[in-house]
Amino acid sequence: MFLEALGAAALGLALAWAAVHRLPDRLPVRGAVLTTGSLGAVFGALLTHGALGPGHVTATMVGAVAVATVLLSLLLRPANRRMPRSAAV
What we know:
Elements: H1 2-22, H2 30-52, H3 57-74
Helix pairs in contact: 1-2, 1-3, 2-3
């Protein structure tokens, strides 16, 4: 279980690093994003391991990445696009 948690933290950190470099203007401070990604992945691994039991390492890692992705998506801010105003408003 320790190696699964360590692997999940590494996957979450890699996912968060990719998100920081791909969307730097839409995410908060880098430290918050990296922490959220790694802790989200560890939580996802714990949750998936608890649901499936031991012996499902691949499925545990998929669950870890899924939870980390969902948590990182909650940190996204909307893009700064100006909507054209209508003449009636």
